[in-house]
Amino acid sequence: MKTAVVIGRGKIGSSLIKELRKNNWRVKFSLDNNWVYRGNKKIGDAKNYRKYIKNVDCAFLAIPTFDNGKAAFDFIKCFAQKNIPIVTCEKGSLANYYFSLRPFANKIGYNATVGGGTRLLEYLHARNAKDFTEIVAVVNGTLNFIFDEIACGQSIGKAVSKAIQRGYTEPGATKPLDVVNSELRDVFLKSVILFNVSCLSSKTLCAKNIQLPKVSVADLKSILQDKKMRCVVSISRKPQRAIGGFCVKSGKWFLSAGFKSIDGYWLPHGVNNALLIREKMNDYLLQGPGAGVEPTVLSMIQDASKKFAASPSLKL
């Protein structure tokens, strides 16, 4: 029986604990902001979690990005330095501390950070970057769901309410404009991770060095006038314009993300994500489940189930 540590006891952390037990893992302890738990019993102060790290096979990091990823980076560093693999769904650490994670690359399971259960990063990692001509992706299932609903005739208010009811949205935001801006921050972090994993540039991007403008009321009205609008990430040789997003250059490549009027065969429906890799001779398309607790949890367990020494790690 393998032994795990779960950091974070929110929706994903709680579901992880249940799913790990179903898969014959022993959860030695879990952790929230204040306490260390064995089962539901508090056994110590969260600040002292390191003293409980003995005979652990893998750590699971399931905390939100409430800072710029520094807290998550510290957890990753702690376990990796002890030669313990750590699987994460937190995005800020990879978006802002990618360069600093290089020494720990073979100890990190990262597929749940972008694409939920679609495992976009693993798919991207397996291809040869020298052949790429363009990469386009939908990496936020919540926004894709909302604007897919709008394209089918729903109002944005009803589409957002449905997304909230189904548990697709980030905690806190309820108004359409707030939900859009909250999810765009998620797209922003994921797009930086996607770019860095692509290995198209020798220079790694750092999210905190890029400015992400907020979508205004006027922007949202403009977006809603075109039912072909989707939130899309693009990596290309030419800058791409988008509403409510950003565009940044690294080496010979431009990374952009935001709302674009697009009507492509590759676009996913509902809450799904998609990755389209255009190469010199062919296009390669991957689609699958995006937002939601279950796809994220299953992707994390899939990462952990692999032998880390043999499985793909970050190309840092």
UniProtKB/TrEMBL annotation:
It is an enzyme of class 1 (oxidoreductase). Residues 128-303 form the Homoserine dehydrogenase catalytic domain. Pfam families: Homoserine_dh (PF00742). InterPro entries: HDH_cat, NAD(P)-bd_dom_sf. The keyword Oxidoreductase applies. Its EC number is 1.1.1.3. This is homoserine dehydrogenase. It comes from Candidatus Sungbacteria bacterium RIFCSPHIGHO2_02_FULL_47_11. The lineage of its organism: Bacteria, Candidatus Sungiibacteriota.
